[in-house]
Amino acid sequence: MPPDAATVAHTHQLPYASEQLDVARRCIDVGLLRRRLSAEGLCLTSDGDDAVVGAYLGRSECAHVSPNPLFDELWYRRRYPDVAALVAAGAGPAFLHYVAHGLAESRWPNETMSVAGGGARAPLPSCSSLDGERYLTLNPAARAFVDAFPIVSALEHYNLYGRFMHLRVAGLEPASPDPGAALVALLQSEFDPHYYASRYLSAGTNADLADPFAHYLRVGIERSYSPAGWFEEDWYRAFYPDVRAAIPREVLCGFHHYLVRGRAEQRLPRFDLSSALERQIPGVTAPALIPRVEALRTRLFTRLRAHRRGADEVPTTWFLLPTFNPDISFGGYLAAYELIRALRATGRRVAIYCTEDARPNKGYFLWRERSEALREAFAEVEVLGRGEDDRIGIGPRDHVVVYTVWDLPSAAMLAEWTDFGKPYLLAQEYEPVFFDNSSTRALCAETYDIAHFPIVSSPQLLRYFRERAIGAFADGPGAEASEYAVYEHRINQLKRQSASSMRARERRVFAVYARPELHAARNLFELTLLALQDLCARGTFGPEWSFVGLGALSDIAPLDLGGGQRLVLLKRTSEAEYRELLQSLDIGLSLMYAPHPGLVALEFATTGALVVTNVYENRSAGDLRALCANLVPCEPTLRDLRRAIEEAVGRVGDYEERERNAYVPPPQGWDEIFSREFVERIFRLDA
After folding, report:
1. Which of 647, 642, 617 is nearest to 632 (CA)?
2. 55, 151, 216, 446, 550 from 31: Cα distances, Å
3. Residue 284 CB contacts under 8 Å (≥ 6 apart), including other chains
4. Fewest CB atoms less than 10 Å from the CB: which of 389, 405, 615, 618?
5. In sequence order, what are the residues at sequence separation of 6 or more whose Cβ sits closer than 8 angstroms to the Cβ of residue 447?
């Protein structure tokens, strides 16, 4: 049989050679890997193939994930302690070992194959040649393996695994003129008389003890006795309904089924909790929280290798951003960029350190960014990638600003060297809402206790922090104004429709802020889709309506809403395309299951459209209606969302009222929001 850790003792070179990594990439199911990594927050569903594979091979917290459907990373480590030691030494995932060495050593890649080939029976003879296509046709399990590992041929599979698993090979199958005799021979070839006798015949007759197999044929099969320790008859029947249905119409018993079909189909021969659960709920047994411990440790306790600078050197404001990517220059990142521009306008030196991005591309940013003012401001901004923290120099007149609360621990250490003594947090959300009720959420909430100066992005969010005594407001709502700052994010004033133009249109447009990505779950995409599908199926919308979804980060096929309607999902558009698209908007829908009020709903409302949006703890229905009468508030429930959409449909024809109630945002741009006075006051630039 193939060797295990006790019979193979190799010392493999670390790290793996580039050609070995290239071979491993051919065996990675990128779609599967993306699903598994994104489910744990280790990549984005929108990441390209190279980014997904790069994260898997380059980040230690991804090493527990199995990138191939027939390879079990954690089982392989348990089975082969020598491999586990290599992984612990920093060699990368066990999958790399398997592809580079384990295959050639006939190591088992998963428990199912191990059980199927790990019996006491003698292996079939090896082959120097065989009809590969015939072999794969006879053995679906072999074809599945060759498909999953294209570096292995059919002949190699047979010699490495198939002959130990007693897979069928054309020309090596014994012929028998008597089907009954062939069946008996098949059962007896796998029957374990010692196991059977010790379990079922300890109080039996001498005749039974002398011939346990005869007892099995006469009595054991009918009573669902197990023929060997590695096969559980009653469990096999219970777990596989099709096996129960096949007895006795097609097969004599579960053991018979396993020998002729089940083994080739890689079915489980006995109960194992993890394996049984994985067959029913893939991924449910993965100890996904274990690697999170190190990821959280890195976030909370990493001490940057910065150095002190003298008081006579030019003061610098350091921004700690997770990444520096022009393709996400919207929402929160846009506010950070505009704050940097405002600081640069005062003559302040600004530098960026990326806490997650090892290769920030400033050249690409300058090419991609459409705002000439931002390009000019960033021309002299130094941008450092993750790992270049030894180039951070902190002087007493410096400031440290973070984009996410996760970077407060590192920023607080740097700020200790400054006269101000604490970092600034660009607080644009209460960040625990991004996580489920887990350790990650609890630790994220606790991080707000680190002393910092919050720059809060809306009065509504400020109220949320105040009422819940979060962070700088831990002593209650009466925090001094000098201990925080608040601003309102710029709202785009889109083209305001006239009542006559609304009335003249034959087509009606329903726009949805549709964010189907996992990291945008707070925008309640699933709830939105369920409500629209229900209403379209009921006939709420006539053929004059068209539905468009805005905000997706990838190309997605239109989604069926029922009633002949489809939701056309558009990948993130340019500012000009966005404005043009919303010139004929009748109903907008934008949900935000978080304290931050959201910007899209208000931008939709500037057009004169009716806009469905949800209430939250810090914004009531009355608050929303007082802000704009064209807002249609709802609870974040399916029933109330349907009601609000139906209300909006009923009000579409009130054209004069829609025009009159269009939202008019404050007449200010970023130069007014982050004014020189604002920047100088909060950063004490005149001190």
Report:
1. 647
2. 14, 19, 47, 35, 24
3. 277, 278
4. 615
5. 300, 405, 406, 408, 409
Q: Is the pLDDT confidence value at 172 over 80?
A: no
Q: Report the CATH number that the domain containing residue 339 is assigned in CATH.
A: 3.40.50.11090
Check pLDDT > 90 for residue 111: no
Q: Is 398 left (phi over 0), alpha (psi -120 to 50) or beta?
A: beta
Between 289-301 and 439-447, two packed helices, what is the crossing angle to 10 degrees? Answer: 10
Burial of 532 (0-12, 13-18, 19+ CB in 10 A): buried
In a domain, 213, yes or no: yes
Share of the chain above pLDDT 90, in %: 60
The conformation of residue 507, written as its DSSP 8-state character, comes to S
Determine, yes or no, domain membership for 126: yes
Matching residue, tokens 């709830």: 527
3-state DSSP assignment of residue 649: helix
Residue 494 is assigned to a structural domain of this protein: no
- The DSSP call for residue 304 is P
* pLDDT recorded at residue 14: 46
For the stretch 541-581, pLDDT in tens is 999 999 999 988 888 999 999 999 999 998 877 777 788 88
Considering the domain architecture, whether residues 530 and 475 belong to the same structural domain is answered as: no
What pLDDT band is residue 173 in, cutting at 50, 70 and 90? low
What is the CATH classification number for the domain harbouring 578? Answer: 3.40.50.2000
Integer angstrom CA distances of residue 584 from 227, 518, 627: 73, 30, 22
Single-letter residue type at 353: Y
Measured distance CA(245)–CA(242) in Å, rounded = 5
> Which token pair is 613?
């949006």
Which comes out higher in pLDDT, residue 94 or 184? 94
- Whether residue 22 is found in the same domain as residue 149: yes
DSSP 637: S
Task: Let me know whether 515 and 454 are in one domain.
Answer: no
Same-domain pairing of 250 and 206 = yes
* The token pair that represents 24 in the structure block: 């491993």
Question: Is 70 exceeded by the pLDDT of residue 288?
Answer: yes
- Pick the last residue of a domain from 448, 465, 486: 486
Q: Could you give the angle at the alpha carbon of 284 between the alpha carbons of 299 and 41, nearest 5°?
A: 30
3-state secondary structure 23-57: HHHHCCCHHHHHHHHHHCCCCCCCCCHHHHHHHHH
What are residue 46's phi and psi, to 5 degrees? -90, -5
53-82 tens-digit pLDDT:
988 988 888 889 999 988 989 989 999 999
532 & 478 share domain: no
Same domain, 139 and 205: no
Beta-strand runs (E) in 198-337: 307-308, 316-321
Mean pLDDT along residues 180-188 = 79
The last residue of one of the domains, among 252, 280, 308, is: 280
Same domain, 449 and 542: no
Separation of alpha carbons 271 and 289, rounded Å: 25
Residue 3 has pLDDT above 80, yes or no: no
**Using alpha carbons only, how large is the chain's radius of gyration in Å?**
32
Residue 619, phi then psi, degrees to nearest 5: -145, 115
Query: What 3-state class would DSSP assign to 339?
Result: helix
Total number of domains constituting the chain: 4
> 387: burial class by Cβ within 10 Å (0-12, 13-18, 19+)?
exposed
Q: Take residue 241 and report the two structure tokens written for it.
A: 């309904």
Tokens of 47: 């990441």
Domain assignment of residue 224, given as a range: 188-280
Judgement on whether residues 558 and 640 belong to the same structural domain of the protein: yes
Q: Cis ω on the peptide bond leading into residue 287 (within 30° of 0)? A: no
Contact indicator for 507, 477 with CB cutoff of 8 Å: no
Asked if residue 491 belongs to a domain, the reply is no
Cα–Cα nearest to 507, from 606, 570, 587: 587
